[in-house]
Amino acid sequence: MLDDFFSRAIIAGIGVALIAGPLGCFIVWRRLAYFGDTLSHAALLGVALAFLFEINITLAVFGVSACVSIALLMLQRNASLSSDALLGLLSHSALALGLVVLAFMTWVRMDLMGFLFGDILAVSKMDIAIIWLGGALVFGILIAIWRSLFAATVNRELAEAEGMNPDRANMIFMLLMAAVIAISMKIVGVLLITAMLIIPAATARRLSSSPEQMALLAACIGSIAVIGGLFGSLEWDTPAGPSIVVGALFAFIISLIVVPLAGWRSRLKTNNNSSDLNKGSQL
Amino acid sequence: MLKKNAPLVTLSNCGVFRSNRWLVRDVSFAIHPGEIVTLIGPNGSGKSTTAKMALSILKPDQGSVERCRGLKVSYVPQKLQIDWTLPLTVERFMHLTGKISDAEQRDAMKATGVTHLGNAEVRTLSGGEFQRVLLARAIARKPDLLVLDEPVQGVDFSGEIALYDLIKEIRDDLGCGILLISHDLHVVMAATDRVICLNGHVCCSGSPKAVASSEEYKTLFGGRAASTLAVYEHAHDHTHLPDGRVQHSDGTITDHCHAEDGHHDHVHNHGHASDVGHVGGNSTTRKKEERNA
């Protein structure tokens, strides 16, 4: 079944969605949407450097994204600029540098559109192996640091005081982000990676009552968006990457409609049992 | 394991320097197991900064902080904002920094009176409820050192006294050291073993009574503040009987308290404040009496 380009696209897309969901939750919780954008813009510089030095594109993108993350951490500590200003500075400098480097290499004929919007229908078996193995590694590390990363997300000082080592968790989280950007760039492209991180997580928020549940749901919703988007793109002959993001958007819109309905029903129920609530123990 | 009676945390000549000024400097004290140390002082006197040095959140720019190895710490921060994007119930919040058993969770939530809030989303809680949840989370961990930064802010008047009593109970049950920060000068609990009065440096320290009557304290807060300082304590020379009469320490029983009955420099306790579950008009009237005394 891996011989069919469409099955390969679905398997690769689901692999990305499964890992982008949980990481995307942290992006949403920590209000880091712009950080995802910054890393993906920096990814273009990685692509340019990969061509320049003739190295593996995924590795080069990971390297550049990791450097940008670390630069951000150091600037946040020392500079007197706000985080969003720093992110804007890093994001656009990296993007501009990437385009300049590419322009210098007149001998390279590359399809810029493929990197900006992804080329999921062209994934190879090797790409699938990288996505699933890399994704499994990222997932394993994320589970290992989950408690301390989540505690640091709720409150850094509390986590620090109670021995959770939040700085280490933050650093590892940024490297995981860089890894996910590197492995998923081929699927949805530089411009739409942030959408795969944020939209499924935002959709899951309205449906979940615990952080773990939200991470799981985000992974599922992302996978459904991938399947729906790819079939839609096959049916109506639309570009695959953007179709996946549109699929995620539909899921979000449905959650906007479903959740108020559920809330309305549970309110009805609560009104019937409201007498029980008043019996709760009081100090 | 922790050695008995060795200090949990020792600060020696600690100071923090930020933006061209010392937030606090030359602070030295130690917290031992089973000891309650209270930091008081005006706004910006370095109370939270000092606590953060003890917690190793802030590295001191001067002096050193020594912590016992393997110290288990619980912290109730002064401010904690939960973003609305975080789906977080009270029960999940209780497990934030480590696993606790169901029984530990239940007991802690019962002690602070938040059992009924288990499934509530943390961001929907009122200020006082959230403060109780924070305290429940901190004690459920059964820490060696408990650091409370204004733990009763936003808690109603009668609840405040019950929580102070609870803090004392926690100390007695767990035998942990407690560092308590309070800007509430009127209620410095008598269970406190040591009060450290800060104003950028250690202004004075000692037993609650000694600090209240010290010259430095009076200069810092003014004579009026000192005269209204209510050292809330359990030691009293008379007991109010259920029928409203008063039994004195010498065993005599009268219908009312006398003017000299423990109303001079501290506040008496009617003996029901230790009843944590009790909410009643009595605590409020007691407070009024304290003010007038």
Describe the protein.
The complex is a heterodimer of chains A (283) and B (293). Chain A is mainly α. Chain A has a domain at 5-193: ABC transporter involved in vitamin B12 uptake, BtuC, CATH 1.10.3470. Chain A is 82% helix and 0% strand. Chain A has helices spanning 5-29, 33-53, 57-78, 83-104, 112-117, 125-154, 156-161, 166-188, 193-205, 211-236, 240-277. In chain A, helix 1 (5-29) packs parallel to helix 6, helix 1 packs across helix 9 (193-205) and helix 2 packs antiparallel against helix 9. In chain A, 47% of the residues are buried. The model of chain A is unreliable at 275-283 (pLDDT under 50). Chain B is α/β, with parallel strands linked by helices. Chain B has a single domain, classed as Rossmann fold. Chain B contains eight helices and 14 strands. In chain B, the strands form four sheets. Chain B has a six-stranded mixed beta sheet with strand order 5-6-7-3-9-10, sandwiched between helices. In chain B, strands 2-1-4 form a three-stranded antiparallel beta sheet. In chain B, helix 3 (102-111) packs across helix 4 (127-140). The longest helix of chain B has 18 residues, at 157-174. Chain B is globular. The N and C termini of chain B lie far apart (47 Å). Mean pLDDT of chain B is 74; it is low at 232-236 and 259-293. The A-B interface holds A 28-29, 31, 147, 150-151, 153-155, 157-164, 205, 208-211, 213-214, 277, 280-283 and B 52, 55-57, 72-75, 77, 80, 82-83, 85-89, 92-93, 96-98, 110, 112-117, 121, 132, 141, 147, 159, 162, 276-277, 279.
> What is CATH's topology name of chain B?
Rossmann fold
Mean pLDDT of chain B equals: 74
Largest protein interface?
A-B, 29 and 38 residues
Count of extended strands of chain B: 14
Portion of residues within helices of chain B: 25-40%
CATH superfamily of the domain at 5-193 in chain A: ABC transporter involved in vitamin B12 uptake, BtuC
CATH class of the domain at 5-193 in chain A: Mainly Alpha
Instruction: Give the end-to-end Cα distance of chain B, rounded to a whole number of Å.
Output: 47 Å
The gyration radius over C-alpha positions of chain B equals 20 Å
Q: How many strands, what sense, and barrel or not for the largest sheet of chain B? A: 6 strands, mixed
Structural class from helices and strands of chain A? Answer: mainly alpha
- What is the β-strand count of chain A? 0
Strand content of chain A: under 5%
Which stretches of chain A are poorly predicted, pLDDT < 50 over at least 5 residues?
275-283
The side-by-side strand order for the widest beta sheet of chain B comes to: 5-6-7-3-9-10
CATH superfamily of chain B: P-loop containing nucleotide triphosphate hydrolases
List the domain count of chain B as a whole number. Answer: 1
Q: For the terminal residues of chain A, how far apart are their CA atoms?
A: 63 Å
CATH class of chain B: Alpha Beta
